[in-house]
Specification:
The chain has 11 helices and no strands. With 239 residues, it is an all-alpha fold.
């Protein structure tokens, strides 16, 4: 592993892009904040805690799945992978660097929801490490899914439409902004095909909104391992 490259890349493509293009940051926050507003209005505030708890999940998932467009653009259009292959940088270094950059880019949105969560007494300091662990795992899992999507594409013209559709499906259908207990148990496991579902169920349990489901830890870990393996297969790294 090349930690120097990973940190530099994450700094440049994660933090520095916030300074260069703050409009991208606003765009990444638009869907979660819109859903927070709608949930608050339509439920008269009864589900606002769930919307706040699901906000960081939606931000991380949306930014990570949009990484498919970046990965496809880097590979097909500007061929940056060809440059990295000629160096000591491995495919794992490159994948982890991009994944970390999406997490860094998500930090302002996570911080905003942390403030909201503290104000509405949804997030507690004692559960911070557990929430961070879930968000890190979710970032890795969804980022690896984005590498699979990018590897299957032969042209970048459709990638932005695909990622936009997947972003909505993966943040709205799972119990991100509503209690997972609203769904039958069987439906929850079906929706767990999306890594967002176990992450949402875990965070609702961690903050005490719903019963904690231990099985979702194993589901998220298994999905992380499987998608990491598949991501390395589909990244089309030619050494």
């Amino acid at each position: 592993m090349n930690p120097k490259f990973i940190l530099y890349f994450a700094w440049y493509y994660g933090f520095y892009i916030i300074l260069r293009g703050p409009s991208y940051l606003v765009a990444s926050l638009s869907l979660p904040l819109t859903l927070l507003f709608m949930v608050t209005i339509f439920t008269h505030g009864t589900l606002i805690a769930y919307a706040i708890a699901g906000g960081p999940i939606a931000i991380v998932a949306a930014n990570s799945i949009n990484g498919a467009a970046d990965a496809a653009f880097f590979r097909i259009q500007i061929r940056i992978q060809d440059l990295f292959v000629a160096t000591r940088i491995t495919s794992q270094d490159y994948m982890f660097a991009l994944s970390l950059s999406y997490l860094v880019f998500s930090l302002p949105g996570i911080a905003l929801y942390a403030v909201l969560g503290a104000y509405f007494k949804v997030f507690m300091l004692s559960s911070a490490l557990q929430i961070i662990a879930v968000l890190v795992l979710l970032t890795l899992t969804i980022s690896n899914l984005s590498f699979i999507i990018a590897g299957l594409l032969k042209h970048i013209r459709n990638v932005w439409g695909i990622t936009a559709i997947l972003s909505i499906i993966m943040t709205v259908l799972p119990p991100t902004f509503y209690p997972y207990t609203f769904l039958p148990q069987g439906v929850i496991y079906i929706l767990s095909i999306s890594p967002v579902t176990p992450a949402a169920v875990l965070i609702q349990g961690i903050v005490g909104l719903e019963p904690f489901q231990v099985s979702m830890i194993f589901i998220l870990l298994i999905e992380t391992v499987i998608l990491t393996f598949l991501g390395r297969k589909f990244i089309r790294w030619r050494e």
